[in-house]
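Why should sequence recovery work at all? Because a backbone constrains its sequence more than one might expect. Tight turns favour small or flexible residues, buried strands favour hydrophobic ones, and helices have their own preferences. The token representation captures these environments compactly. In the example below, the structure is given first.
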């Protein structure tokens, strides 16, 4: 399944995330974890993370991890290295999960 996420729709306040219904809370934590991991290594063409895939089939949870990259439009693209889960995350820059190293001159 593909997910398209505009990060402006996820509250930055942890208390607001905790107050979300469980499915929304779990998805918010999953997506923001991807942003936090991918934004640390944006210079790499493909970034391997330790974020575990959240996909489930009827028998068990996927054992894969999330890989991703930054596309030319500035959108984070992610995919599980074991199953078909994937997605796109926009408007992530400048959020609390943006871990880019910034230098000032």
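From this structural description, the recovered sequence reads:
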């Amino acid at each position: 399944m593909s997910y398209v996420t505009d990060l402006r729709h996820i509250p930055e306040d942890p208390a607001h995330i905790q107050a979300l219904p469980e499915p929304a809370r779990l998805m918010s934590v999953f997506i923001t974890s991807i942003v936090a991991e991918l934004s640390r290594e944006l210079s790499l063409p493909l970034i391997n993370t330790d974020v575990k895939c959240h996909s489930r089939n009827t028998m068990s949870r996927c054992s894969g991890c999330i890989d991703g990259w930054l596309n030319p439009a500035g959108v984070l693209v992610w995919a599980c290295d074991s199953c078909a889960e994937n997605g796109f995350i926009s408007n992530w820059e400048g959020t609390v999960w943006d871990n880019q190293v910034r230098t000032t001159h």
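A few observations help interpret the result. The beta strands are 2-6, 47-52, 65-70, 76-80, 86-90.
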